[in-house]
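Exercise 4. Each item below gives a protein and its sequence. For each, produce the structure-token representation.

Item: histidine kinase (Gracilibacillus thailandensis).
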Amino acid sequence: MNDFDTYIRASKNKCETTYNMIPNEVPFLKVGLTKQELQNRKQRFVKELSVVQHFMQKLIQYMEGIPTLIITTDNQGYILDIYGDQSIKEMVDSLGITPGVRFNEKDVGTNSVSLALEHQKPIAIIGKEHFHDYLSEAACYSSPFCFSTNSSLVGTVSMMTTVNFASNFYLGLLSSAVDTIEREIQLQEQNHQLHLLNQILIDSTPIGIVMTDNNGNLLEFNSSAEEIIGIKREEVLVNGLEQIDQIGEYTNYVLETEKKVENAEFSFQLGESDYSKNLLLDVLPLFDEGQMIGAFAQFRDMTNYHELQQKLIESEKLSTIGKLGAGLAHEIRNPLTSIIGLTHLMKENKYKAEYLDIITAELERMDNLVNQFVSYGKPTTINRVSCCIHDLIRETVELMKNNARLHNVNIYVECSVKDAEIYIDKHKIKQVLINFMKNAFEAMPDGGNICLGIETDLKNNEFHICIKDEGIGMTKEQVDNLGKPFFTTKENGLGMGLPICFDIIHAHNGRIEFHSEKGKGTEVYLVLPQNNE
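Answer:
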């Protein structure tokens, strides 16, 4: 058992036995600070909050597509800053998690902020590791950070995302970012207190440091600057700072304007090689009794940090490829089930000639699915043909009858437009119908009825295909997320079926509408234009 498990287990036990909490209750943080107290506290940490926000906003940019919320607290757990994904922010707002309140174990239960402060270690709490069920869909990562000058605990920086995006990699990423934040806070604090007489100490830092007089003549170029830039100090003294393009340009700007430059990022190419480094630069004007006497530049090699971001991106790509492959298997399983069911019937001497036609059609659909997977991510292409919409429904129902019997489901068809023709890709529309019918089967574990209806909307010149079940239904939040890649309401679902269905219907210039209520079943409407040539 690792430290995480021990900490979480102890916290949950305390919540249950000491605080008498109930997991299915919704926690709510109590208001802690007044507006003025919050303002005063934020003012005390204004530099730290600025540094944290700069680096964490960069982190959010690199994690594009992953809903992420950042929360910064002080060493007592009071929230000082919240920013990031709006949907997650709205969720935590509903719990009273806003600036000024305090993350307290006895109010919110087992949480990463309280554990990180208590044990002064980075902590991850994923899904059901939270005490309260309401947070079972959240993945939270917290890391403490300190004042570098005296190692006193400042507070925590936390990342929050949804459980389906959870990854142990994020805790390492957050810890690395906090290490960078701590180093940045250290440098800013040192630079504030630095006096010209302390220049002898500058070579002890791993940060590149450059100093000039007010005419731009080089006074100092430390060993770390040599290592980062790849140019010897003597060479810079002879040729001047101008040979280092970006650093020279920013330094001249500060000398001319007496304005500081902070957090300037740029790529620096090492000599004539193809290798480059990502640098983060600050340049400050130096004053003595109100008179500018020179410029002080510090720069850090951020290459490893950027490479870490790239590794995260590559990791997500590999994860996506794996999920796409699983999605293909999920889609191929549908026609395979139909083929297996029909072959079993044929073995029982229940042979019908049309079974061979259906099997052939399903094999062709599997071939189409493989082709679709190969071209996944490209615009969906469809091959339209004129077909009878009633016949298409009838064929699909025939395919699903064996599967329906296995689930104790009865299928009914209500069609008022039996001879209506529609111009569609019948294989892909059949794929959509099968997917929604299978979802309906799975939503009724004890069996039930499914009704397929076809109606004509003469006013809008549309066909409405309705698939209605008597299943468990969905919440509004679940309905709003339908169609998003990898979102699923199933315990073992992959979230691949519906995005494919949405792509197919959109390619037909149609739309999908859902009407669902928890415990009262779901109605799915496939809306297709009548004239779609």
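Check: The chain has a mean pLDDT of 83.
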